Structures are given as C-alpha cells and as structure tokens.
C-alpha cells in the first residue's frame, strides 16, 4: 500500500495564501501532477523553494473538493485521479504536486504544494489493455475560501445525479428483466401457431420459404423480448439510458461542424463517430493530429479552453479564447516526459551505434572514416592555378580556392612594391626641372641650371605624404659639399644653402687672440673640483703645436666668464639627478614651498607621467585657508586607475570614478556596522520558512502586522492568528 507524507506548501504558495487571507489576492487551483523524481532526501526548505515539480510524468484534473472539519474555511481536500490509459511505460509516483494560478494579469501557473512518497504507488503500463486508476486526496491551506476557486475537470467528476454505482445498475437491470418477463407472461399467446403465409405477411414478402420461422422458433425468440406497446407503457424514466451513460464519458461532434472555433459547449468531444478522414481534413483551426483525438472544452467565466488529447502520443495541445470564444489563441504543444536523463541519453547513444560506412569505406577503431579528397600541394602565383593530388584523410580541412587567389593578388601587389623600392634605392637619371621634383627618391643629373652647381651631381628628395612639405639635398659629383633647400605650405622654394664644413681660411674677421683647449687655457682642476683659467698667447693663426684645434676669442675676460659659467653648471649638475636616473642620498627630500596660510596657490608642483593621451600626476594642492591636499590626478579619460599590485600582479584598484575594486576585511575596520552575513540571513530565512510551513500544516494563520492579526481574530473567533 502506498504511503505519502504531509503536504508541504511552497514559498510561492505561502505568499499567495497570505495575500488571499488579507483579501489582497484571488487565485484558483488548476491541476495536479505526478513525478518520478525521488525527493525523500530533500529538506523541507528545499521543497518549499520549488516552483516546478521535477520529472513530471502525468497531469490530473481536480475533483471531489472536501472541507475539513476543524478549519473548513482555511483547509480543503482536493482529489487527483491518475490512470494508465495509453501509458507505454509504467512508473512510480514518487511525488505529487498541486498547481495554482493567481487571478491577475500576466500571472503564470506555479507549484502551490507537493507531497513526497515514503512508499510510492506503482502505475503499470497499458500494454495489456488493463485500466488502472490511482486516486489521491491532498489537503492544503488556502486562507480565505471565498478568495479561492478550484478548476474541476469534467473528465473525472460526476455528480450523484449523473452516475450510478455498480450495485445500483445491477439492481435496476434485474428489476427491468423481471418486469419484462411479467409482461411477456401475461401478453404472449403461446398456443398460437403461425403458418408460412402469416409469417410471410409479417415479414418481407420476398423472403425465401426457407427463411420462415416455425411457431416454436418464433416463440423461442419472443420469450426474451417485450411487446413494444407494453414497453412504451412502462415508466423507465428512473433508469439510465445507454446513450446517457456513454455521453457522460464523451459526446460525438456533429457532422455539420466545419470550424473548431465553434466547438464551445463544455464537455469531452470525439470526431471519431461522425467524421471520416476527408471530413476531418476539411475542419478549420485544428491541431496537427488525426480525428481519433479527444477534445476537452471547459469554460471559466467568459474564458474558453480547448485541450486536445491525441491517441498513442504523450503530446498534448491546448489553446484558449477570451470573451466567449471571439478570439482564439494558437495551439500550443505540451509534451509529457520530454526530457531525458543522462542514463537515458547514454542508452540511446549506445543503441544508435557507430557509423557503419561512408561511401563504401569502413570506419577505423576510433569511429573515423577516411575520406579521399583533393589536396592542394602547390600554387602558381602568376597564373593563379593550383597543383592538386588525391589523399586519404580522416579530418580534412578545406580551403576555398578564392582564398589562394586573394593571397596571390597580395603577393603580386607586394612584388610591385618591391620593384618600386628597388627603383627608389637606385638613383634615377633624369633632366626634369628640380623645381618640379617633389617625389621622394634618388636622382642623378648631368647638368641643370636650377641646381646650385654646374656639372653632374645627385639630388635627394624627401616629402610628406600630402606633398605639402618637400626637402631637397644637392651633392656635386666628386665633392664633399652639399646644398639644401625646402618648400613649405606656402609653395615657394627657399634659397639653396651650402652645408659643407668651413675651414679656417673661410672665416672672415678673425679675432686677434687664439687659445688652445689642449694647452690648458680652460681645464678641470682635480684637486679643487673647479674649472680654472690660464692664459697663453699664440701669435700664429695656425693650429697648436700638438695638433689640437684652437679657439680664438677677442679678449681674456670672455674665457674667464666661460670658466665661471662652467663652474655654475657643474654645481647644479652635482646637486641634481641626471636625466638617465640614479639613486638619492639617504634621508634626502624634495620640497615644494607654497604660499601663506591664507593663500590658495593651487598646484604646488609634483610628478607627472604621460603615455598616449592619458596622464597620471601626484602633486600638492593648496586649495583653502591653511589646507594642503595630496592630489592623485588621472587624465584624460576614465580608462586609467590607481592600481595596488603584489609582484606586478594587480590585487585591487581605485577606479577613476572613485570606486574600490578590492575586498574589505571588516575585522580590521574600526567603527564597522553590526550587520548579519549573507549566510546568517539565509539560515534565518530557512528557519522562518520551516516555522511557517509547520504553522500552515497545523491550521494557524500568519499576518504581517499585529493589527491585521487582531482584526482577523475578531472576525473569525475560531482562528489561531499570529502576527
């Protein structure tokens, strides 16, 4: 015998009960469902968190709503009916669920309550055409009964006036048989003998003589029959008609129906009796199934529902229409047990087997089939033709011919570029007017009046991409001198300028004195660390005896000033870090002094790093009376941040918008708020849910405030109200 635990109300169901109990919501219980999932190891909290019943095998309509004795307005019993009709595989009913939907716009159906089996019921398959039914009564908390509606399935519910028990039907049949026998005993003339002529008159005159019954044969047949007039006189209104009993299960759709949108009368309907395949195919707005399916039509206020149950399939189709059937929705498919478990998937893969052959080739041990394909082994760039051969491969990689064509075109372009670069590398002999030479390259002239020299020579041209700026360097053939000129945005060439190294003889207005660095006129004294000045006159204007180049100045005072300036440079150089970087002395500091106590000098100076369009600065900001802030300034967009790193790996950062990306160890933070952790809140909520579930099972009513609880207890003296 099967055994099921007490009903568990889900969190979503509990929320709806609370709002319905306060008169803030209305809802209806829609249907039941059976599951093959074993939920015995799930905690109460896990069950309460469910919104869908897993591994659903069958759905059931609801019937036989019963009120409980203790709390008739808060707890009701709902009956679910499951059978094995058309069930191809038997299963264990490990859990049953009850679904509900709030009477609100955009509301969806959800799991309201469920019960887990300790000893599940086994529903067998229907292979032997033996019908098995499993009925279960589930008791659930609903809050205020006037805010709850139960959607009752007409397939499973019949009133007492509509049905007869097996004993009642047998008693009625026995009584009817006795009445018929009494009528026949009193009315039938057993001594009357029918000749063939009389029988022929009563029967078809064209009947064969051999078909005529004798008196004994006729009497024998009439013994079990009642006279028509006597039967008409008999009051049989108290008995159930065969057609009425059959119609309680389903009704036949009239043959005149051509539009399924017009099937709006509630009940269970069948097209099988009055429709052949051609008539069925002519019916409009039907689901993708044959005429042997059953159709359930239900009505809730002005909303109509049609559900199609195809034979031999677990697929169910449904749709609805609002406003009394004026606008029907499209048919939707609902497939039971459409999700396979991992084990079922593995079995199906094993059953499918491996590939047998591909194009007559057997697979190898790994299941791969070698394929003979054309493989490109070479490619002619100029003709753009591929060299191909046939090879056997198991995992071919295909390359479209157009890809090679693209590569070939790129190679040809690069070849042209290489030829152009070769021409640029070698000088080009030309006589073009140099004023018109604005293309980068090396050129050789055999004489041109626009060059700054006569005869042969070279002309080097360099330009910008837009040719707005051009530079020309002219070099006479066989000489070590050069001339340079250029053209800018104005479009006018500058004059040629000789850029050769001048000799002493080229200098005019020579000074009267000349002093040699080599002979110590200015030298560095290693003992004092200063530059010192010594005078030595030369009468010759040639280089010094040692071969060093002499420096000529007008007077000694100029050299003395030079020595002083060099000493100043030395002192500054020794007191500063070199541009290449270096180490500073221990305890050394860098000072920036701002204004007075009431000044607002702003940026007092600091360090700046630049990269791309971004920058990072650290400086002192005197921005108020007796106030100096240390500023970390990031620019120019919000892509950069202050990064905290350990061994070059970033561990946290302060973004440019001020947000901190690292974690906070609150145990080391003073004045931290006394708040619960996320896990503590979750554990506390689980405890509350467990308590509320137990209260619901005991029939208690929980309210959000003490005022609501007090008002409910006055309105319902028998309630146990908890704020």
TrEMBL record:
<protein>
    <submittedName>
        <fullName>Phage related protein</fullName>
    </submittedName>
</protein>
């Amino acid at each position: 015998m099967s055994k099921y635990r007490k009903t568990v109300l889900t969190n979503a169901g509990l929320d709806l009960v609370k709002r319905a109990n306060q008169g803030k919501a209305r809802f209806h219980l829609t249907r039941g469902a059976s599951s093959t999932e074993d939920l015995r190891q799930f905690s109460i909290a896990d069950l309460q968190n469910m919104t869908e019943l897993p591994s659903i095998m069958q759905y059931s309509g609801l019937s036989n709503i019963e009120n409980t004795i203790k709390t008739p307005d808060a707890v009701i019993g709902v009956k679910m009916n499951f059978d094995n009709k058309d069930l191809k595989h038997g299963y264990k009913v490990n859990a049953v669920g009850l679904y509900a939907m709030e009477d609100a716009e955009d509301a969806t159906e959800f799991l309201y309550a469920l019960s887990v089996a300790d000893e599940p019921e086994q529903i067998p398959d229907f292979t032997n055409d033996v019908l098995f039914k499993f009925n279960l009564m589930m008791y659930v908390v609903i809050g205020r009964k006037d805010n709850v509606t139960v959607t009752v399935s007409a397939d499973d519910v019949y009133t007492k006036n509509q049905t007869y028990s097996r004993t009642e039907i047998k008693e009625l049949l026995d009584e009817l048989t006795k009445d018929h026998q009494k009528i026949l005993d009193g009315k039938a003339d057993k001594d009357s003998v029918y000749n063939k002529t009389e029988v022929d008159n009563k029967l078809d005159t064209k009947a064969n003589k051999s078909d005529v019954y004798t008196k004994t044969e006729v009497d024998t047949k009439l013994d079990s029959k009642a006279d028509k007039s006597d039967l008409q006189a008999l009051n049989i209104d108290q008995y159930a008609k065969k057609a009425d009993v059959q119609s309680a299960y389903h009704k036949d759709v009239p043959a005149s129906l051509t539009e399924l949108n017009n099937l709006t009368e509630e009940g269970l309907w069948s097209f099988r009796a009055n429709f052949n395949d051609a008539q069925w195919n002519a019916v409009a707005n039907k689901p993708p199934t044959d005429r042997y399916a059953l159709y359930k039509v239900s009505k809730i206020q002005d909303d109509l529902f049609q559900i199609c149950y195809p034979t031999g399939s677990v697929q169910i189709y449904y749709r609805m229409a609002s406003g009394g059937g004026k606008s029907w929705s499209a048919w939707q498919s609902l497939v039971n047990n459409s999700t396979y478990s991992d084990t079922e998937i593995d079995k199906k893969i094993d059953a499918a087997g491996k590939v047998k052959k591909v194009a007559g080739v057997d697979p190898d041990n790994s299941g791969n089939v070698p394929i003979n394909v054309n493989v490109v082994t070479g490619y002619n760039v100029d003709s753009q033709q591929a060299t191909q051969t046939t090879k056997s491969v198991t995992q071919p990689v295909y390359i479209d011919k157009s890809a090679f064509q693209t590569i070939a075109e790129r190679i040809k372009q690069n070849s042209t570029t290489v030829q152009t670069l070769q021409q640029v590398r070698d000088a080009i002999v030309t006589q073009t007017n140099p004023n018109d030479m604005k293309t980068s390259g090396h050129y050789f002239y055999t004489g041109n009046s626009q060059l700054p020299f006569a005869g042969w020579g070279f002309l080097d041209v360099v330009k910008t991409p837009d040719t707005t700026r051009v530079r020309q360097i002219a070099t006479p053939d066989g000489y070590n001198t050069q001339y340079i000129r250029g053209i800018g945005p104005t479009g006018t060439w500058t004059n040629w300028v000789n850029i050769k190294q001048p000799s002493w003889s080229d200098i005019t207005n020579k000074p009267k004195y000349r002093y040699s660095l080599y002979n110590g006129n200015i030298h560095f004294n290693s003992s004092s660390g200063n530059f010192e000045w010594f005078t030595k006159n030369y009468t010759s204007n040639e280089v010094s005896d040692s071969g060093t180049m002499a420096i000529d100045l007008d007077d000694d005072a100029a050299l003395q000033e030079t020595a002083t300036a060099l000493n100043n440079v030395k002192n500054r150089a020794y007191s500063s870090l070199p541009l290449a970087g270096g180490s500073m002395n221990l305890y050394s500091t860098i000072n920036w002094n701002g204004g007075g106590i009431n000044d607002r000098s702003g940026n007092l100076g600091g360090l700046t790093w630049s990269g791309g369009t971004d920058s990072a600065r650290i400086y002192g900001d005197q921005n108020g009376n007796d106030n100096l802030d240390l500023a970390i300034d990031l620019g120019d967009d919000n892509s950069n941040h202050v990064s905290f790193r350990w061994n070059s790996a970033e561990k946290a950062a302060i973004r440019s918008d001020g947000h901190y990306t690292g974690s906070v160890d609150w145990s080391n933070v003073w004045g931290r708020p006394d708040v619960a952790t996320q896990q503590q809140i979750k554990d506390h909520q689980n405890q509350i849910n467990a308590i509320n579930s137990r209260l619901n099972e005991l029939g208690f009513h929980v309210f959000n405030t003490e005022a609501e609880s007090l008002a409910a207890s006055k309105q319902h003296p028998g309630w146990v109200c908890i704020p």
